[in-house]
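User: Could you check the structure of this?
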Amino acid sequence: MTLIANFMPFELPYGGPNFNEFADTVVYTINVSNSGRALADISYQFTFKTQVRNPNSFLYNVGPISSPTDANWNRPQTFTVERVDLTPPPKYFPRHLSGILGKDLTCPPVNVGIRSTPNYPTLAAKSYHQLAGGRMVFAGQRADGFHVDLGSIFDLGDLRPFQGAYNKGIPPVLANMPGVNGLLDLNVHTIAIQVPLSDLTVDGKTPTDVMSANSVIGVWATASRSTSRILNKKTGKYDNYGAWTQVSRLGNPLVNEVINPMGEKDLWNINPPRLDSQFAKYVLQPELANLIANVLYPTAFPNLAAYVKSKKPRADLAAILLTGIPKGVVPGFQNYTGSVQADMLRLNLAVPPTAPSKANKIGLIAGDAAGFPNGRRPIDDVTAIELRAVAGATIPLVDKSYKPDAAATSLNDGSTEGTANDNAPYGVAYLSSFPYLSNPNSGFTSKPGKPGGQTVN
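Assistant: Sure, the predicted structure tokens are below.
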């Protein structure tokens, strides 16, 4: 099982001389719930330490970097990874399972360019660290494989592929435009850890029964800072005081972006998932569903419009996002974590992975049980999946009398993966082995995009 958490999106590859990096003042955590209580039964905690070798130089590196320990790298980072268990693990767990799993492990530098970081794949691979028991860990820059047409999603959700067909009043120049991946050619900072399945289960066994509650886990990532910080006028830096406190989290994609209202986003970020019942009303009556049915595409979604008008709670979305899908909804499948409403990315560990050649990027709703919302593979088109769910494609799972609008099964933002140097079937040249996400885009070889026009005539 590989757990991956991405931080700091929208990284420009050429964003120097102060390139993106993990913060020394943050605890980055990947949490796993396996007890049905929506608690962090297992936490993998990552802390970082940055060294400045020559404070009198403005350079990120003073020459080519051939390894993560190369003296030419003026700002190297190392990290420690620790596993923390909410309750002591069973006696039959290996002794090395908990506590510090790795210390002073190297991060790779960012992909500066052909002079500074030549042969970057080989350089980065030197920071794929082996841990005890065949476990592996990595922390560093990657190409952002997530794709979403942010320009259309946040322009009142006016999806480019649907403008010409369903939305009256769109200027002709915009009709039938292809989707635009707003994250194309950008980088992100990734934390990835690969562990045996038995590390994550409540009974310490490798699960084989899909219908067993012990086969299902919930996962989310958090970032925590100290409760207070004070500017030190002598050094120009902040001194941190107090306990660590959570300042952000992510489980299912796009929940806090397009489900939670603006006035609740900060509160949601500091709360643990087990308290998410206070936000459930936004899942049960999503604002986006009304926007799709009654504002953007009323001729295409009459059934959804009637459902929105009826005020029926969206039990399908509650199952997908808040509890997991219980037995009896999808034949031969479940990823139910219990009645506690909590935003977690759920995974049934007993479901075997689908061969890459047969994987469907629309995941579970297209019949591929190894895909989102059962876990989240890099290839999964989570934006299209969630758009279709909100548009009513999944209502029949809980309400057999409902017939989805024909457009619901084809709703998408039209975006695809892609990096500047890639020809893979799904766009991004994902690696075939750990850490799977592609090497980051190079600052030297990147070409900045052109700003959009001011108006459309």
